């Protein structure tokens, strides 16, 4: 009996500790400091400036990925700058529509004024959007665009801020066209077979490169390092004269570069990645990749928060913004590392 | 004396669970109030029940199987398979009621498949259901090439979100399903036999219980409840996701053990699984409302599961 009491108290005290930790985190932005530390005192109403009354919910796909960490830190920086509170919640391990719905419901209860969300899938958020509309909460769509079949179910406007993946692939393709001879023997590693951004990145690249490449293999490696390694190994075995591997994300490119190195073909086979992850940037610097396409998650996060606040203040906001992408090579990699590091380093 | 001890032990289990649940609920209510957030509101309680509903419903199935001394890992895959199958049927113009019946039959058939290999085939339940977890996740992706299905009529969403006396239908389903299964497990011959084959299979066999029949039925019922969970999730999201339900097998088992059902079988009450699912739901909801970092939420939930069972076992430790 006694022990069960002790256990229960342990649980409760554990939760208290967590909450204390969470309170500390919040106090790092000065505007919320008053409301958390002085909540017992009476003056909270007066000390808040006009916009600091707002709380913005931010829901990335997951937080297991540098890309989303950079995005959240961008959003947090903007929130601090504008003096609004930011609540970041993500599904823990897998991007799941059910988890995102739960998060949105709880954010509504928690009293956020607007939600910026990266949908786990383009079509999965219908119920969540309806609940936001009912509760009068503004929604901003970041990074992965919501399908029209979903947005048409609600009558509110949902602005989108993200990147055109096809244009990003095209930039890589154009680089190849300028710097490689016609008919370069090329393999392409794509992501999960059915995802739109995988197609877009592949098609954009093929458009941009045109007749500069002769594609001998297109294989899916499901965005994963190990599968990229296996796929590249098999492609090299089948095509010993391969000259270029274009990978639709950096993880697969990292796998492919290991396979290339092991085969001793580092000089013959060049590698291009996509995403601009920090490990990939280092590999561009060291020459293992000739380049990677970098999107701008920081900007996406910032735009989401900035426009959410604008809209809450009753101002007009842009309905569609392309945050752009750039092709990172040895020439501009240092600049990119300098730009992104503050947003991913702890 | 032994009987007295036994009675007391069950009390401790239930007491710890309810007491713990109330403490957690109170703690969140107070902390949220301090932070100016309304945790203990009718709306939020409804949210929590809805958020816990899928785990609660599938938890019934998991509990039944665990009572027989087995385990079922196919929960998430059945949810996804039923969701995609149901989605495709609806898209093909099959009326909702027929789709639901078809989904329930699919779930039961998967359960029968599991039950056959466990009971007749004598393959360990963990392995059979590990296999069927893979098989049906695979089939789910085969059906649509891994693509989701969306764009349903509003009647699908209304199945769970439609309100009766201001309360969403999903909330009723949870309580009705639990009421039925509490009755079945505690008041019927079938229920007593479930406990018998889980608690002491040899004795059950000697006393003439048809172990195979009961065991296979348990898996079939579990499949049925997983399918109900799948339909509810499909309706709640109005979206069929081939990746839906991954990890739910662990959540359903967690709710079961939190509710005090012994993994060794034959001990515990199905009704308490609902409380287990709600405790998990309350934790998740409260931590999210308080904006606790995502990773810490997982840590806290894991700690709570271990501590709760640790507290349950206080008497066992004393006995040793």
UniProtKB/TrEMBL annotation, chain A:
<dbReference type="GO" id="GO:0030313">
    <property type="term" value="C:cell envelope"/>
</dbReference>
<dbReference type="GO" id="GO:0030246">
    <property type="term" value="F:carbohydrate binding"/>
</dbReference>
<keyword id="KW-0732">Signal</keyword>
<protein>
    <submittedName>
        <fullName>Ribose transport system substrate-binding protein</fullName>
    </submittedName>
</protein>
<feature type="domain" description="Periplasmic binding protein">
    <location>
        <begin position="56"/>
        <end position="316"/>
    </location>
</feature>
<dbReference type="InterPro" id="IPR028082">
    <property type="entry name" value="Peripla_BP_I"/>
</dbReference>
<dbReference type="Pfam" id="PF13407">
    <property type="entry name" value="Peripla_BP_4"/>
</dbReference>
<comment type="similarity">
    <text>Belongs to the bacterial solute-binding protein 2 family.</text>
</comment>
<feature type="compositionally biased region" description="Basic and acidic residues">
    <location>
        <begin position="27"/>
        <end position="36"/>
    </location>
</feature>
<feature type="region of interest" description="Disordered">
    <location>
        <begin position="26"/>
        <end position="52"/>
    </location>
</feature>
<feature type="signal peptide">
    <location>
        <begin position="1"/>
        <end position="20"/>
    </location>
</feature>
<dbReference type="InterPro" id="IPR025997">
    <property type="entry name" value="SBP_2_dom"/>
</dbReference>
UniProtKB/TrEMBL annotation, chain B:
<feature type="transmembrane region" description="Helical">
    <location>
        <begin position="96"/>
        <end position="118"/>
    </location>
</feature>
<protein>
    <submittedName>
        <fullName>ABC transporter permease</fullName>
    </submittedName>
</protein>
<feature type="transmembrane region" description="Helical">
    <location>
        <begin position="295"/>
        <end position="311"/>
    </location>
</feature>
<dbReference type="GO" id="GO:0005886">
    <property type="term" value="C:plasma membrane"/>
</dbReference>
<dbReference type="Pfam" id="PF02653">
    <property type="entry name" value="BPD_transp_2"/>
</dbReference>
<feature type="transmembrane region" description="Helical">
    <location>
        <begin position="270"/>
        <end position="289"/>
    </location>
</feature>
<feature type="transmembrane region" description="Helical">
    <location>
        <begin position="53"/>
        <end position="84"/>
    </location>
</feature>
<keyword id="KW-0812">Transmembrane</keyword>
<keyword id="KW-0472">Membrane</keyword>
<dbReference type="GO" id="GO:0022857">
    <property type="term" value="F:transmembrane transporter activity"/>
</dbReference>
<keyword id="KW-1133">Transmembrane helix</keyword>
<feature type="transmembrane region" description="Helical">
    <location>
        <begin position="216"/>
        <end position="239"/>
    </location>
</feature>
<keyword id="KW-1003">Cell membrane</keyword>
<dbReference type="InterPro" id="IPR001851">
    <property type="entry name" value="ABC_transp_permease"/>
</dbReference>
<feature type="transmembrane region" description="Helical">
    <location>
        <begin position="125"/>
        <end position="144"/>
    </location>
</feature>
<feature type="transmembrane region" description="Helical">
    <location>
        <begin position="164"/>
        <end position="186"/>
    </location>
</feature>
<feature type="transmembrane region" description="Helical">
    <location>
        <begin position="12"/>
        <end position="32"/>
    </location>
</feature>
């Amino acid at each position: 009996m006694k022990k069960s009491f002790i256990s229960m108290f342990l649980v409760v005290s554990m939760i208290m500790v967590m909450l204390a930790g969470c309170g500390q985190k919040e106090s790092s932005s000065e505007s919320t400091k008053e409301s958390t530390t002085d909540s017992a005192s009476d003056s909270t109403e007066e000390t808040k400036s006009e916009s600091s009354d707002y709380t913005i919910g931010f829901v990335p796909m997951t937080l297991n990925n540098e890309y989303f960490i950079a995005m959240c830190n961008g959003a947090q920086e903007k929130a601090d700058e504008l003096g609004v509170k930011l609540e970041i919640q993500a599904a823990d391990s897998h991007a799941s529509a059910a988890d995102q719905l739960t998060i949105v419901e709880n954010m509504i209860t928690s009293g956020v004024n607007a939600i910026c969300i990266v949908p786990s899938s383009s079509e999965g958020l219908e119920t969540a959007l309806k609940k936001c509309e009912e509760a009068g909460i503004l929604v901003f769509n970041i990074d992965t665009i919501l399908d029209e079949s979903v947005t048409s179910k609600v009558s509110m406007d949902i602005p989108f801020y993200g990147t055109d993946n096809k244009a990003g692939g095209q930039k890589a393709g154009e680089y190849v066209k300028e710097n490689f001879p016609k008919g370069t023997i090329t393999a392409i590693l794509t992501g999960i077979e059915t995802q739109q951004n995988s197609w877009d990145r592949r098609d954009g690249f093929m458009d941009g490169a045109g007749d500069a490449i002769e594609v001998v293999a297109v294989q899916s490696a499901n965005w994963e390092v190990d599968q990229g390694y296996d796929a590249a190994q098999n492609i090299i075995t089948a095509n010993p004269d391969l000259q270029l591997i274009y990978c639709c994300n950096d993880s697969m490119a990292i796998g492919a570069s290991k396979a290339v190195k092991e085969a001793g073909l580092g000089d013959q086979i060049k590698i291009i990645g996509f995403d601009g992850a920090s490990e990939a940037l280092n590999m561009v610097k060291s020459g293992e990749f000739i380049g990677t396409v970098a999107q701008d998650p920081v900007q996406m996060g910032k735009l989401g928060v900035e426009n959410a606040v604008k809209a809450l203040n009753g101002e007009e906001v842009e309905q569609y913004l392309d945050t752009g992408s750039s092709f990172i090579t040895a020439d501009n990699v240092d600049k990119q590392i300098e730009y992104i590091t503050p947003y991913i380093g702890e | 004396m032994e009987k007295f001890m036994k009675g007391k032990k069950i009390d401790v289990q239930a007491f710890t669970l309810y007491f713990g649940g109330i403490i957690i609920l109170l703690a969140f209510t107070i902390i949220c109030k301090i932070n100016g957030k309304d945790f203990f509101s009718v709306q939020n309680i409804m949210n929590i029940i809805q958020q816990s509903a899928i785990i609660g419903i599938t938890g019934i199935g998991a509990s039944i199987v665990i009572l027989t001394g087995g385990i079922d890992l196919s929960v998430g895959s059945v949810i996804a398979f039923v969701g995609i199958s149901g989605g495709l049927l609806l898209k093909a113009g099959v009326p909702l009621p027929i789709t639901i019946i078809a989904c329930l039959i699919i779930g039961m058939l998967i359960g029968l498949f599991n039950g056959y290999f466990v009971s007749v085939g004598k393959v360990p339940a963990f392995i059979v259901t590990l296999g069927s977890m893979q098989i049906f996740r695979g089939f789910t992706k085969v059906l649509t090439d891994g693509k989701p299905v969306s764009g349903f009529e509003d009647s699908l969403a209304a199945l769970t979100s439609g309100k009766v006396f201001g309360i969403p239908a999903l909330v009723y389903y949870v309580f009705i399903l639990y009421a039925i299964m509490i009755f079945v497990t505690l008041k019927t011959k079938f229920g007593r036999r479930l406990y018998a084959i889980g608690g002491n299979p040899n004795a059950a066999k000697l006393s003439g219980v048809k172990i195979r029949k009961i065991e296979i039925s348990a898996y079939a019922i579990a499949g049925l409840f997983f399918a109900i969970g799948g339909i509810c999730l499909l309706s709640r999201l109005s979206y069929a996701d081939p990746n839906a339900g991954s990890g739910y097998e662990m959540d359903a088992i967690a709710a079961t053990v939190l509710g005090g059902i012994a993994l060794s079988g034959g001990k515990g009450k199905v009704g308490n699984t609902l409380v287990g699912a709600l405790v998990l739901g309350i934790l998740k909801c409260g931590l999210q409302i308080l904006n606790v970092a995502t990773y810490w939420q997982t840590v806290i939930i894991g700690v709570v599961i271990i501590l709760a069972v640790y507290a349950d076992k206080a008497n066992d430790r004393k006995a040793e």
